[in-house]
Amino acid sequence: MQVGLSKGKIYTVRDGGITCHLCGMTSYNRDDIREHYCGNCKVFLDTVTYQEAQRLHKTPVVLRMPQTTHPSGGVYAWVAVVLGILALALFVLFWR
After folding, report:
1. Would residue 25 count as lying in a domain?
2. 61 near 52, Cβ under 8 Å?
3. Dihedral, CA of residue 20, residue 22, residue 23 and residue 27, to nearest 10
4. 78 belongs to a structural domain
5. How high is the mean pLDDT of the chain?
6. Which domain holds residue 14?
7. Count of structural domains, the chain
8. Residue 81: inside a domain, yes or no?
9. β-strands 11-14, 17-20: how paired?
């Protein structure tokens, strides 16, 4: 169930939480859900006007993992794992 700014609501209540469309945060606090409150924006979402929504809107933060710069970066990791296993096997064999 997606509710946007054009429908007059700037939040969605589902899956046991309330999601603020201004900042993208979801709260599972029962009081926040009951009162339609966003703790991140610190506003009651039922009382926000369109102008306040424009001012309060925050671009959601997307975290991404950096890509390896070397095309064969994964190969070196596997070589290190294989060498470690061989070293461990040799250590066990010659320890006796």
Report:
1. yes
2. no
3. -10
4. no
5. 79
6. 5-56
7. 1
8. no
9. antiparallel
Which has more confidence, 5 or 86? 86
Strand partners, 35: none
Quickly list H helices, the chain: 30-35, 50-56, 73-95
Closest CA to 21 of 30, 13, 10: 10
pLDDT tens profile 40-80: 888 898 888 877 777 777 765 555 666 656 666 677 778 88
Distances (CA, A) of 47 to 1, 10, 11, 79, 96: 21, 10, 12, 60, 77
Q: Please tell me the predicted confidence (pLDDT) of residue 18.
A: 93
Query: Sorting pLDDT into bands at 50, 70 and 90, what band is 87?
Result: very high
d(CA 5, CA 57): 11
Contact status, residue 39 vs residue 29, Cβ threshold 8 Å = yes
68 inside domain: no
Q: Tell me how far apart the alpha carbons of residues 11 and 32 are, in angstroms, rounded to a whole number.
A: 11
